[in-house]
Amino acid sequence: MVNRTFRYEQFTIAQDPSAWPEYSAMCVSGEDVECGVESGGEGNPEAVEEWMRQHTQGTGHRRYRRNISDYAVWELAALDIRLPDKESQ
Ligand SMILES: [Zn+2]
After folding, report:
1. How close is the Cα of 19 to the center of ligand 1, in Å?
2. Quick one: pLDDT at residue 3?
3. Phi, psi of 9 (to 5 degrees)
C-alpha cells in the first residue's frame, strides 16, 4: 500500500538561499592524457570564464569540463488546496 504523506500539501524544489552556487572548470584538453588543471570554485561563471581564457592563452588548450553546484531544498508552497466539489464529479 502506498502511503501518500504529501496528500494535502504542495512542495517545490528551490535553490537554498543560504548557500551560493559554485562554478568551476577543469581543462580536459589532450588525447591520451587530459591536462586536468582545475580552476577552483568561484562564485560566478564570469570568473571561471576568465580563468579559462587565461589558461587557453597560456597553453593553447581549448576543451573544458564545467561544473555548477548548488544546494536545493524542498519548500512548502502556499496551501491553496481546493477539495473536490462533489457536484462536479
Ligand atoms: Zn589545460
Report:
1. 29
2. 53
3. -130, 150
Q: How many Å apart are CA 40 and CA 74, to the nearest integer?
A: 28
Span of 9-13, 26-30, 81-85 with lowest mean pLDDT:
81-85
Question: What distance in angstroms lies between residue 56's CA and the mean position of ligand 1's atoms?
Answer: 7
Q: CB–CB of 78/52 below 8 Å? A: no
Please report, for the chain, the start and end positions of each structural domain, with discontinuous segments joined by +. Answer: 18-77
Percent of the chain scoring above 90 in pLDDT: 63
Helix-, strand-, coil-residue percentages of the chain, each rounded to 5: 20, 25, 55
Expressed in angstroms and rounded, the spacing between residue 25 Cα and the centre of ligand 1 is 10
Ligand 1 centroid to residue 7 C-alpha, Å: 51
